[in-house]
Amino acid sequence: MREHFEKEVEELKSNLIRMASLVDGQVEHAFTALETGDIDICRGIKAKDSEIDAYDNLIQAECENVLALFQPVAIDLRFIISTLMINNQLERCGDIAINICQRVKKTGEYHQLIVESQILDMGKQAKEMVKNAIDSFITNSSDLAKSVLVNDQKVDDYNKQIFKFLVAKMQSDNKLIEPCSHLIVLTRNIERLADHATNIAENLVFYVEANIVAHRKKIKSFEESSEKGKVV
Fold it and tell me: Between 1.20.58.220, 3.40.640.10, 3.50.70.10, 3.30.930.10, what CATH number should domain 2-218 receive?
């Protein structure tokens, strides 16, 4: 029975790694399209999305099958739970790659504005987070996963900074209102991409260390606020 279980788990992990590799490529190509304005790259990304969706369905079915047949516990159960969560996050990363390409089509003529706004720098940071989150799963490295969590704040800082820059551009030149609006939507997508990478990393830490680190900032802030509000 154990041998059968391990075989099923190995197949499940292999499929998730294949899906992760596809998503990593999609994200890489999306930012290449953003940097170069190459619409042909965007068409290739759209064509690949159905393959990611197929893996999404397959992995969900495999997880359900393992849960039903083997009723795993402890670290085995954490692996299945984490796989389900990571699978969902990867599928969303694939969708965001398409969303980025949609904005490339709208802003291709404003390359200098994209450079000046530091959107490419923000994208580079988010892309690295996705890659490291995927690698942390492949290697079961909670240390690498935690490095992703630390870098999430950098993307958030870029997002705030770029928003202010683009608003100032729109105020100074009304001809830039439309392209800047598209770029603001683009930064929201990049910020969400970093969030999904963070979620993948959090689930890897949960699997490896049995430690729930999701929502850690909000919970800490809530606890601190509660402490201040106590009547002595």
Answer: 1.20.58.220
| Contact of 27 with 42, CB cutoff 8 Å | no
Q: What is the DSSP letter of 174?
A: G
Return d(Cα 16, Cα 60) in angstroms, integer.
10
Q: What number is the average pLDDT over the span 91-111?
A: 95
Q: Could you tell me what percentage of the chain is helix, strand and coil, using 3-state DSSP and rounding each to the nearest 5?
A: 90, 0, 10
Query: What average pLDDT does the chain have?
Result: 92
- Alpha-carbon torsion, ordered 32, 34, 37, 43, to 10 deg: 70
Report the pLDDT value the prediction gives residue 224, as an integer from 0 to 100: 56
Q: Which of 85, 100, 54, 65 has the alpha carbon at shortest distance from 206?
A: 85
pLDDT tens digits for range 43-74: 999 889 999 999 999 999 999 999 999 999 99
∠49-203-16 over CA atoms, to 5°?
40
- State residue 92's pLDDT score: 98
Contact 179, 103 (CB under 8 A): no
Torsion sign across C-alpha atoms 58, 64, 68, 69: positive
Boundaries of every domain in the chain: 2-218
Whether this model's pTM surpasses 0.70: yes
Nearest 10 degrees: CA dihedral of 171, 176, 178, 182? -100
Provide the 3-class DSSP secondary structure of residue 58: helix
Q: How far is CA 147 from the centre of its chain?
A: 14
